[in-house]
Specification:
Keywords: Methyltransferase, Transferase
Protein name: rRNA methyltransferase
GO biological process, one term: methylation
GO molecular function: methyltransferase activity
Largest sheet: 8 strands, mixed
Strand content: 15-25%
Organism: Gordonia jacobaea
Radius of gyration: 19 Å
CATH class of the largest domain: Alpha Beta
Length: about 300
């Protein structure tokens, strides 16, 4: 279970590293609490399962049972960073921040008194960063299956923690530790989210509307989410949570061919087409230096954990 590179002891320093959120974590193998070894280079539990802290200041808590699941590559993460830097998804980022802020006056963690935000499927951390910026004195942890996402998150979200884990499996968090959980364009593990949220905690879910990036789907041969799968997950959410707010965010954004290529390259289509092919299709669709309008359209659903769940 050891990971690629061990950190120097400074990786557990005061700047929002593992030490700042280890109290929220539990061993993915046995469920026991985790602590540091003497040099501060790994985490271990009372049963001596151990997990090295990478030099980039994240920890992998994979339990070895996730098989060969695909995760974001370095190129996919780079494309996503460029899309966010271009501001294409700012309407979604802002909506997540607003939803988190609406909870900030009440959210207090049962562990430390500070609100805790957990982002499941965090990617490189843009949505976690926005949520943390809107909630005073909050602590944040981003979880993703991709080590490249974890590396980017530690660089771009100062003070947040990064964990590599499979959000479809048992989450490596102690019970009732989170005040807010984010699932933005990400898998929704209903039972585990209910477990880690404290009573009255909020789950902020962002899902694409049918017209999200619709202008690109056919010409760029992008993969789309199955409606049946989405409906099944929504039904499961409804059995464990109360929906307290649901908002549709829809804006048109002007994008260049290179940004179109990045929008395609940051998602699952990139597993099936190489970058050169994607860029060629993008420049055919949006030739020259012109910009093309695309629709950013999502539903932001805020759910509250019920007391009797």
């Amino acid at each position: 279970m050891t990971q690629e590179s061990r950190a120097e002891p400074s990786s557990t320093g005061p700047d929002g590293d593992i030490a700042d959120f280890v109290d929220l974590l539990r061993c993915p193998v046995c469920g026991e609490s985790l602590t540091f070894d003497e040099p501060g280079r790994r985490l271990f539990c009372p049963l001596r399962h151990s997990f090295d802290i990478a030099k980039q200041r994240y920890v992998s808590l994979l339990d070895g049972r996730s098989g060969s699941l695909k995760s974001d590559t370095a190129d996919m993460v780079s494309a996503r960073l460029r899309v966010h830097d271009a501001g294409v998804l700012d309407p979604v980022v802002n909506a997540v921040a607003e939803a988190a802020a609406a909870r900030s006056t009440q959210a207090r963690s049962v562990h430390t008194g500070s609100p805790v935000i957990v982002d499941l499927g965090a990617g490189p951390g843009h949505y976690l960063s926005a949520a943390l910026g809107s909630v005073e004195h909050a602590r944040g942890v981003g979880v993703d299956l991709s080590k490249y996402c974890a590396r980017a998150l530690t660089r771009r979200v100062p003070g947040a923690g990064a964990v590599v884990a499979d959000v479809w499996r048992d989450l490596p968090f102690v019970d009732a530790c989170a005040d807010v959980v984010l699932s933005v364009f990400a898998p929704r593990n209903v039972d585990e989210t209910a477990r880690i949220l404290r009573d009255g905690g909020r789950w902020i879910i962002v899902t694409p509307q049918p017209d999200h990036l619709a202008e690109l789907i056919e010409p760029m041969s992008m993969l789309s989410v199955s409606a049946d799968k989405s409906d099944a997950v929504s039904a499961a959410v409804g059995r464990r949570f109360e929906t307290v707010e649901q908002t549709v965010v829809r804006e048109r954004r002007d994008v260049t061919a290179s940004t179109i290529a990045d929008l395609v390259s940051m998602g699952p289509t990139a597993f099936h087409r190489d970058r050169d092919e994607i860029e060629g299709a993008a420049h055919t669709f949006a030739p020259g230096s012109t910009t093309t309008p695309v629709t950013v359209a999502v539903t932001v659903t805020v759910c509250q954990a019920s007391v009797d769940r």
